[in-house]
From TrEMBL:
The chain crosses the membrane at residues 362-382, 480-502, 522-545. Residues 362-559 form the Membrane insertase YidC/Oxa/ALB C-terminal domain. Residues 33-45 have a biased composition (Low complexity). Required for the insertion and/or proper folding and/or complex formation of integral membrane proteins into the membrane. Involved in integration of membrane proteins that insert both dependently and independently of the Sec translocase complex, as well as at least some lipoproteins. Aids folding of multispanning membrane proteins. Gene3D superfamilies: 2.70.98.90. This is Membrane protein insertase YidC. Keywords: Cell membrane, Chaperone, Membrane, Protein transport, Transmembrane, Transmembrane helix, Transport. The gene is yidC. InterPro entries: Membr_insert_YidC (IPR019998), Membr_insert_YidC_N (IPR028053), YidC/ALB3/OXA1/COX18 (IPR001708), YidC/Oxa/ALB_C (IPR028055), YidC_ALB_C (IPR047196), YidC_periplasmic_sf (IPR038221). The keyword Transport applies. Residues 26-48, 593-619 are annotated as: Disordered. PANTHER family: CYTOCHROME C OXIDASE ASSEMBLY PROTEIN COX18, MITOCHONDRIAL, OXA1. Residues 75-338 form the Membrane insertase YidC N-terminal domain.
Length: 619
């Protein structure tokens, strides 16, 4: 590995660190105490207010005053995946339990409940907005359990002024899956309502479902998808207050936690606009780690004409599930930058799910994934090794050039380029194979923190491969982080990186590597260790196995590569290229170097005749 190769590797390491810091789920410091928690939506009256007399009900609800009194009755519907509790007060979803998942401390995973979630449906009354969430609907449906995939249960809630004047909400739960049909109808209320949008105000105080609160905060956001097929988000990777008014029509909105989603999807006419807000409360607790709020506007005319068809989604943020929900919904699972996303979707994920179909232990699955990826990349590793081997064979001649022109680095570079051209060696050929591997490396870095498949999967001492493994708890936070633990997999990964670095240095003459680079190559893995210390154990374990396999590959290649044969081929190339005409690129490069040398000599001449003497004196 000569200086050019080392510079290439250094640039790659710097790129990796930059990408890691940008993409990682490293939590930022707690927000200032002055940060205000997002208030609940202002609706009239508040959910906690109790109507005690008809005069108050008339003042608040006008023609709907009679519905201000009633009995809140639960109706439970469920399939094999979810259990949903509906309530006649507001005709709303009161609670959602995901049957197939547990919280980090193995409690039932209640995705939403009355304490953490509120939905206010407001109609534009002629005398003021009417909050239907506080009114009592009627229902004759009993709920129940849907046992067959092809079956469904329908629960209807109606708020009627007369036979032909009503608001109706209909929920449909199917035999499996996490989508709940939701139809909203407004009929015969022209004399009661004014021509203005209907508002659905949706507030979620996100609960703690994962061990790592800070990472969960950073990964929680509001995602939305417009009719122009544009995916956007607010609040992602942030603990500050983020607000946005979306003026274009919206196809769906999801309130995303790290591994779970609550979403509302327009199956008919899209939402006309929306206001979105994300914030972190002043006091973070297990029941309130982040606050997400959306206020969506619906066309009243569309609800009157029977176009109010929607789906709720309450379930895991699992790529294999969400990709089939609706257009753009798969974007809820972050797969990296656009180019990286292609590698994730069409290379890494198919291989991962293929392995998952017959390997049940996820630690062993990671090992298998490493072997598959390393096999695919082996030709690139081989080319990189051969480039290093060629440079090593040429090292004696390079040392002669440095000894002869050591005081003139420009001349040294010119002579080195001339030598490379003579023997047919591209000094960048060792870096190119490494650069071609980077999309896969970045794809894996994006995937591991976001794949729910690793959630609560244990391997060796790690109880959960989707979060960090902690073997030591320090009495202070590690500098530049908000963590005080030491991850054993991160330490082992770093040790393997240092071993790989040491192995590479043994392949290169010490004289070929300037002193600062010798230090940098050992410092970089340690820096990366602190960056990855709070990353998922599965990711660090992958890098650990990857380093070990790479060392094994290079030892195998070295065993079968004959450096004497390489020298013989280089000498043959030297003879063949002796009278070979220079390429246009080579000619332009040499001309640029020649002009640079002239500029340097001209600058030295202007400094005076003693410039060279001063240089020698300093030496």
């Amino acid at each position: 590995m000569d200086r050019n190769n080392l510079i290439g590797f250094l640039l790659i390491f710097l790129l990796l660190i930059g990408y890691t810091i940008y993409e990682s789920q490293q939590p930022r410091p707690e927000p200032p105490k002055t940060t205000q928690a997002t208030p609940a939506p202002k609706v009239a009256p508040s959910v906690s207010e109790t109507i005690t007399d008809s005069a108050t009900a008339k003042r608040l609800y006008g023609d709907f005053a009679a519905a201000g009194f009633g009995e809140a009755k639960d109706i439970v519907v469920e399939n094999k995946d979810v259990k949903i509790t509906l309530n006649t007060k507001g005709g709303k979803i009161k609670e959602v339990l995901l049957k197939n998942y547990k919280t980090y401390d193995q409690k039932p995973l209640v995705l939403i409940d009355e304490k953490s979630s509120s939905r206010a449906l407001r109609l534009p009354g002629k005398t003021g907005d009417i909050n239907l969430s506080d009114l009592y609907f009627t229902s004759t449906d009993a709920g129940g359990v849907v046992k067959q995939d092809g079956d469904s249960i329908r629960v209807s809630f109606r708020l009627a002024l007369a036979d032909n004047q009503y608001v109706e909400q209909i929920y449909t739960i199917r035999g499996s899956g996490y989508q709940i049909g939701y139809d909203l109808k407004v009929n015969g209320l022209d004399g009661v309502l004014k021509n203005a949008p209907v508002q659905l105000v949706w507030l979620e105080h996100l609960k703690k479902f994962e061990k790592d609160t800070q990472t969960s905060q950073m990964a929680s956001a509001i995602n939305y998808y417009t009719v122009e097929e544009e995916f956007n988000d607010i609040g992602d990777n942030s603990v500050s207050v983020d607000e946005k008014a979306v003026e274009e029509p919206i196809r769906w909105v999801s309130l995303k936690q790290r591994f779970f989603l609550t979403a509302l999807i327009a199956r008919g006419t899209p939402f006309s606009s929306g206001q979105l807000k994300s914030s972190v409360p002043t006091v973070v607790s297990n029941d309130n780690i982040k606050v997400l709020e959306s206020n969506l506007q619906l066309s009243l005319a569309d609800l009157k004409s029977g176009k109010g068809h929607f789906d709720y989604y309450f379930g895991p943020n699992d790529y294999e599930i969400v990709k089939n929900v609706t257009d753009g919904f798969r974007e809820n699972v972050y797969l990296g930058w656009p180019v990286i996303r292609i590698v994730s979707r069409f290379v890494i994920l198919p291989v991962f799910h293929l392995l998952e179909s017959f390997i049940t232990n996820y630690g062993l699955l990671i090992i298998a994934l490493v072997l598959v990826v390393k096999t695919i990349l082996f030709p690139l590793v081989y080319r990189s090794y051969m480039s290093i081997a060629k440079t090593r064979v040429l090292q004696p001649e390079i040392e002669e050039i440095k000894a002869k022109h050591g005081d003139d680095m420009q001349k040294v570079q010119q002579e080195q380029m001339k030598l490379y051209n003579q023997v047919g060696v591209n000094p960048l050929s060792g870096c190119v194979p490494v650069l071609l591997q980077m999309p896969i490396l970045f794809a894996l870095f994006s995937l591991f923190p976001n794949l729910i498949e690793f959630r609560q999967k244990a391997f060796l001492w790690a109880n959960d491969l989707s979060t960090y493994d902690s073997i030591i708890q320090l009495p202070f936070n590690i500098p530049f982080t908000a963590y005080s633990h030491i991850s054993l997999f991160a330490v082992m990964m770093t040790a393997s990186s240092l071993a790989f670095t040491y192995y590479n240095s043994q392949m290169t003459s010490s004289a070929a590597m300037p002193g600062p680079y010798k230090t940098v190559q050992y410092v970089m893995p340690v820096v990366i260790m602190f960056v990855l210390n709070s990353s998922p154990a599965g990711l660090n374990f992958y890098y650990l196995i990857s380093n070990l396999v790479t060392i094994a590959q290079q030892l195998t290649i070295r065993k079968f590569v004959d450096e004497g044969e390489i020298r013989r081929k280089l000498e043959e190339n030297r003879i063949k290229n002796k009278d070979k005409k220079k390429t246009g690129f080579q000619a332009r490069l040499e001309e640029a170097m020649r002009k640079a040398e002239e500029v340097r000599k001209d600058a030295d001449s202007k400094k005076g005749p003693n410039t060279d003497a001063k240089k020698k004196t300093k030496k």
